[in-house]
């Protein structure tokens, strides 16, 4: 069976639509600074290597009031900038998760049919 | 300072991001990169693909944060100072020229009108008029003497217009200030008009570019 190579930009396109939700979810659990967020995402299987940076995205979330920020002392270094979800961010996260699940289920339905067809041909 | 952060700071300075905001972003970036280095992680694990283009990364971050002044004000600010300086300089030139023209207009003046060769001209300053020679009588309503034949070097010869106009353009300056003054006045006034026209055209083009390209933001380096 010939395997179709997944275009590298498809993953980027998929991530582009949901990375803001992922960041909100990460900081909703517990406030975090930028690098800490990338570590938590990586621990959950989502690496941003080869993708865009999260900092502009954090800037947008901050500008839109979806996250609050505060400075907290770090171990012997300068104070770090921590992000956490605001009330508006929590509402946005809930709505986004709901949309994602709906889209995911719909796409799973379509891809499930395609997968069954491919297996049948093989 | 980390070289990447240094390049970002340079870009924020170019974009006129407020210093306090630029310092905050630089500190945030510096501390994260430092921690990543200490843990053996690469800069790409912190910055993603933004690590390969510090300028684009810095601009994208500042744009998404909404801390870049609008393009129109930036461009206005960039050419406003030279434009003002040019207008002030040209106004000064025109003023000096006007002063020279006024200062050099001294009586007595003599006027030459073209009445067919040889020329006749007036000498309003003369009280005792030499005898007239036909066929060049003075024009009506002019109390002046007509001296035939002599053409004073440097006088302007006019045809047709009124005596007042002839007097103005035919005035014989006592010094060379008069023509120089007129030149400066025309250069100054003309230059001011040209600068204002250029400013108007530049302003129109800047507004047109903003409408075509759309507002900044929306497209960012973030995934």
Give a structural overview.
The complex is a heterodimer of chains A (122) and B (223). Chain A has 122 residues and is mainly α. Helix content of chain A is 62%, strand content 10%. Chain B has 223 residues and is mainly α. Chain B is built from seven helices and four strands; from the N terminus they run H-H-H-H-H-E-E-E-E-H-H. Chain B has helices at residues 3-14, 19-38, 43-47, 54-65, 71-104, 163-169, 177-213, and strands at 111-113, 120-123, 145-148, 157-158. In chain B, helix 1 packs antiparallel against helix 2, helix 1 (3-14) packs across helix 4 and helix 5 packs antiparallel against helix 7 (177-213). Chain B is rod-shaped, with a radius of gyration of 35 Å. Chain B starts with a helix and ends in a 10-residue tail after the last helix. The chains are: A mainly alpha (122), B mainly alpha (223). At the A-B interface, helix 1, helix 2 and helix 3 of A face helix 2, helix 3 and helix 4 of B.
Query: Mean of the pLDDT scores of chain B?
Result: 70
Query: Roughly what percent helix of chain B?
Result: 55-70%
Structural class of chain A: mainly alpha
Major interchain interface with per-chain residue totals: A-B, 29 and 32 residues
Q: What is the general shape of chain B?
A: rod-shaped
Rg calc of chain A: 18 Å
Strand order across the largest sheet of chain A: 1-2
Largest sheet of chain A: 2 strands, antiparallel
- CA radius of gyration of chain B: 35 Å
Query: Approximately what portion of the residues of chain B adopt beta-strand conformation?
Result: 5-15%
**Looking at the structure, what is the overall shape of chain A?**
elongated
Please give the order of strands in the largest beta sheet of chain B. Answer: 3-2-1-4
Oligomer: heterodimer
Report the β-strand fraction of chain A as a percent range: 5-15%
Total strand count of chain A, please?
A: 2
- Stretches with pLDDT under 50, minimum 5 residues of chain A: none
Number of helices of chain A: 4
The percent of residues in helical segments of chain A reads 55-70%
């Amino acid at each position: 069976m010939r395997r179709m190579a997944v275009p590298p930009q498809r993953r980027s396109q998929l991530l582009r639509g949901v990375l803001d939700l992922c960041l909100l979810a990460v900081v909703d659990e517990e406030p975090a600074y930028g690098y800490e967020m990338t570590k938590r995402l990586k621990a959950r299987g989502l690496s941003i290597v080869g993708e865009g940076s999260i900092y502009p995205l954090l800037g947008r979330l901050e500008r839109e009031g979806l996250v609050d920020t505060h400075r907290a002392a770090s171990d012997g270094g300068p104070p770090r900038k921590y992000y956490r979800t605001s009330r508006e961010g929590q509402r946005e996260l809930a709505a986004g998760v709901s949309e994602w699940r709906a889209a995911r289920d719909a796409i799973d339905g379509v891809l499930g049919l395609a997968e069954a067809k491919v297996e049948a041909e093989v | 300072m980390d070289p990447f952060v240094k390049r970002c700071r340079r870009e924020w300075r170019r974009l006129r991001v407020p210093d306090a905001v630029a310092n905050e972003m630089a500190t945030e970036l510096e501390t994260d990169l430092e921690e990543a280095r200490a843990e053996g992680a690469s800069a790409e694990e912190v910055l993603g693909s933004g690590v390969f283009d510090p300028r684009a990364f810095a601009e994208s971050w500042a744009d998404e944060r909404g801390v870049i002044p609008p393009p129109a004000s930036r461009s206005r600010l960039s050419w406003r100072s030279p434009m003002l300086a040019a207008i002030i300089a040209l106004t000064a030139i025109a003023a000096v020229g006007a002063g020279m023209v006024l200062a050099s207009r001294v009586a007595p003046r003599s006027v030459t009108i073209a009445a067919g060769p040889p020329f006749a001209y007036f000498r309003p300053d003369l009280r005792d008029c030499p005898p007239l020679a036909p066929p060049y009588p003075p024009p009506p309503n002019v109390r002046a003497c007509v001296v035939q034949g002599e053409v004073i070097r440097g006088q302007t010869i006019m045809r047709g217009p009124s005596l007042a106009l002839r007097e103005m353009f035919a005035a014989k300056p006592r010094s060379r200030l008069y023509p120089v003054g007129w030149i400066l006045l025309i250069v100054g006034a003309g230059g001011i008009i040209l600068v204002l026209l250029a400013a108007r055209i530049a302003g129109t083009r800047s507004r047109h570019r903003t409408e075509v390209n759309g507002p900044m933001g929306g497209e960012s380096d973030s995934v």
